[in-house]
Write a structure and sequence with these properties.
The protein has helices at 16-27, 47-57, 72-82, 101-107, 130-139, 156-165, 183-188, 199-211, 230-237, 239-256, 261-265, 269-292, 308-313, 318-327, and strands at 6-12, 34-40, 61-65, 87-90, 96-97, 115-123, 153-154, 178-181, 213-224. By secondary structure, it is of the alpha/beta class.
Length: 328
Amino acid sequence: MTQPLVSICIPVYNGEKYLKQCLDSCINQTYDNYEIIICDDGSTDTSVQLIEEYAISNKKIRLSKNEKNLGLVENWNACIKQARGEWIKFVFQDDYIAENCLQKFVEQIEPSVNLIVSARNFILPENPSSDYINYYTNRVRTLENTGAYSSTFFTPQSISRIAAENISMNFIGEPSLTFFRGRVVDELGSFNPLFKQICDLEFVLRIASKYGLKYIPEKICAFRIHTDSTTSTNVENKYFDLHYIEPLLFSWVLFYSKEYNTFRSCLNVFLKFKLKMYFKLKCYVANKVNREENKNHLVFNPSQTQFKEIHNSKDGNLLVRMIALVKK
């Protein structure tokens, strides 16, 4: 079996609480041909000191400190730019991986495979409520509960269909669960800073809707859920953007962006119609709330010519208005 170089990418910002566990899990891998790329985005806690201590004794670690704070998504992209590996494995500062994680991923490599994803292993906070447990155990959409799980390879057609049936729902998995070829970034682009919350879904869907994905039904990557996470912070502080603007822009990307030509070609007439109506509905609702709450969001500014379709659809048509009334 070949031993390709794997780049473990760890974007860091004030991650001292769980960073040691994250680094230990990456260092103690049964697979040996890897590097650890860490981009710190201006941490003010002890994260950098901790990383520097690890780097002294482990030459696989390369720390890069951003000259200015880039923000979440651009720091992810900074990690990718530093990576030299044929394959890239993200591990977030709050997360950790099993000691055989890289080995398991590498064993699944085939010439036609560009994206590999493992099963989710949610690490919940202490003493979670029954509703909390039920949501992450039973209600979160996953590759296994989409109704398309019959083998460990999902075709572009099946991925595209699931995405159109579950618009804006991350059924594939967070970056800490993914393993992808570095060259697909040159072809399809990196994480899109247009998105703050579903940036991970948009990125992996861009790959999977063109090449499909291989699935490992083992929980070899742990994704931590806690109140200090970026997800929790976004939900609390950016309600309008996350609930109205992001779904709108995501549906725009799916319906109009050239990066999703293959995705659209995989959809039947009904799913294309559904996606179009979802886009029109989101235009109508987001614009309505924008006016009522005086958000003055730039996406509705006519000078934003990138989104001319949004300007043309933001008032909705009769059908969209009827759907909006029903949903009240």
